[in-house]
Every structure is written in structure tokens, then in C-alpha cells.
Amino acid sequence: MVIGGTQYVGRLLIEHLLQNDLSTITMLNRGDSENPFESNERVKHVKVDRHFGEEHEFEKVLEGLGYMDVVIDFSALHGVHLVDVVKRLGGKIGHYIFISCGTVYYFDPLAGSGQKLKEKPLKTPEEASIESIELEGKFGKDLYISQGKLSAENFLLDMWKKNKFPATILRLPDIVGPYDNKGRHLAIQLSLTRDQPIGIKGSQKFSVIWAKDVVSAINETIEEGPKTLGKILNIAGDEEITTQEYAEKIGAELKLTPKFDSKRMALLPSIKSGPLDNGFAKRLLNNWYPTPIDTWLPELVLHYKIQDNIQYTAKLISKSIAEAEKARKEDSK
Question: Tens digits of per-residue pLDDT, 87-104?
Fold first, then answer.
């Protein structure tokens, strides 16, 4: 089962799974976005609003499901979102893969130091502590997502330790690829083609991962199975790169020279903790090797030379902004 699935990496993952011999794939989400698998009989679409639906609606859906070999969860934003998962899927699930985010490293003392960050359990500081205030000043509103994702991670690690709930945690840096609903690569590429300056203020070395490499990492995590349980894996590319270096690589593909503005904030990285160390993931996942940036970038640049792809991504970005605003309003009630 894929929780999420109609956009970006979730969509790429389902496309990949459909190439295998799986009989059916269950896709669980709100159903607000266009379903690219609507006509495919092998994809069962269960519509439920996990975050803002009726009380216990999500729990009832989970309770009605049969045994699941694998669940890949793209949508959980907080530990409270996983209580129903553990309660209703415990004992009838083979492997639960939680898609986390490199923002959890905001709580690592090495965040922002430029050193590659290695997997380890992390804890958030007390809300009223000096450390918490300093983090708020440094990372701002992103800290909310960081706290939520980290609470989810720690809940799963605790459930693995106490109850052997079969979870694996994948921490991701900035993701680039087709179906991107954030559009950061596209914004840089369009700035180049329009001869507009690209913001580099606050830019630092960061990790990036090709979306198709996330799919292959998930696939290898499933294949490796038991030895990944209870583990945290950084799924990141090998390169450490800055916004300026990234834009220059795009410019080389387009045969254009980028202009830069050191007073305008950089679109990349959106995750500001620093580059991630992927060594453990490469050792544990025997057949997973991240694609070099100079291999996948030409494919992505070519993708966004096509006007239909630009328009499709623009629609995804608008949808993503609207969903974020809805979440913000619901949260403030």
C-alpha cells in the first residue's frame, strides 16, 4: 500500500511497482489531486482524509484492510498520525517504510556546520529552552515540519523496540525530478532561459537526490527486508553542491551563462541542515547506488524544455500551495 501516491515520488513509485508482478496496489489518499492511475485496474484507490477528515475515519479504513506486505507512507507529518497505523496494522503488515526528511537534522548539533550528517536518533529541545529559541531563529517555520517528522521517527523507533513493529525510516534531502510539486529546479531553469538573476543568499553546500533514485532506494529497502527494520537511512546523492554550482550545471546544459543575486534568497537548498552522509544506506542496500548528478541533470533539463511539462508542474505547484494554506488554517483553529 502507498499512502499518498498521486503526486511526485509517490506517483513514480507506483509506476515502478506496476512494472513488477504485483497483483494489486492499494493507494490511500484524499483523492483531491488528479489520479493518474484511475483507469488501471491493478491500482485500488481508497479515498480518506488522514489529517482533516472525520474523527476516526482513517482508523476505520485501516481496520478494514487485510494483510499488507509493504506500506510506504509519504504523508504522515507527525507522530500522532502514526498511532492509528501502529494500532490497526500491527500484526498484519510485513514492512512499514516511513518517508522522513533531512529537516530532522536541525536538531543535530552539527546542523549547518558543513559536515556531512550521519544517521542517529535525535531529540527536540524543550520548547522554552534557549536552544529551542536559537533553532527557531535559525530555521524559522521549517522547524514545525522538523519537529513533526522527528516525533514520527521516534514513535516508530520506540514501537520497533517495544513491539517489533516492522518499520524503516528513510531521511531525504531536496528531491528533484519529473512531477515535482515544489518546482525549485524549474524556477532556476526558467530564470536562466529568461536571463533573470538567480538568488544565492544563504546558499550552502547541500545534498540532492534524483527522484528515481528515491524509488530505487524504496525498492531495495523492500528487497533487503528484515535487515533494514528499526534502521534510519539517509537516501541522498553523493555530491555536495551549492545553488550557484547547481545553476551553472543547468546553464552548461542550456548553453547559457547564469546571473546571480547575492541579496535574493536561494531556492535551493530548501533543507538547510547541510549535506547528508549516504554511506550507511549504500552499505545496507546492496544494489542501491545514487545516480551521479551529471547523468540525471541533462534528462531533467530536457524534461523542462517541453512546455506541457512546465504547465503540468505549474499546476502541481498551485495545488501544493493551496493544500499548505488549508493545513495552516486548520492548524490555527
Answer: 888 889 999 999 999 999
Checking if the pLDDT of 252 tops 70, the result is yes
Contact indicator for 280, 273 with CB cutoff of 8 Å? no
Out of 6-15, 25-34, 199-208, 298-307, the most confident range is 298-307
Whole-number Cα distances in Å, 57 to 32, 61, 100: 16, 6, 24
Q: What's residue 155's pLDDT?
A: 95
Q: List the beta bridge partners of residue 197.
A: 259
CB 64: neighbour CB atoms within 10 A? Answer: 9
pLDDT average, residue stretch 52-67: 80
Which of 124, 106, 152 minimizes the C-alpha distance to 3?
A: 152
Q: Are 72 and 99 in contact (CB under 8 A)?
A: yes
Q: Residue 115 region, left (φ>0) first, then alpha (ψ -120 to 50), else beta?
A: beta
DSSP state of 270: S
CATH superfamily of 2-332: NAD(P)-binding Rossmann-like Domain (3.40.50.720)
Helix, strand or coil, per DSSP, at residue 203: coil
Cell output for 260: 546571480
Q: Which residues contact 293 (CB under 8 A, 6 or more apart)?
A: 208, 210, 237, 239, 241, 249
Which of 281, 210, 194, 204 shows the shortest CA–CA distance to 244?
204
Enter the C-alpha cell of residue 313: 508542474
Q: What local confidence, expressed as pLDDT, does residue 54 receive?
A: 66
Residue 253 half-sphere exposure, CB side, CA atoms within 13 Å?
A: 22
Residue reference for cell 543568499: 201
Question: Any idea where the domains of the chain sit in the sequence?
Answer: 2-332
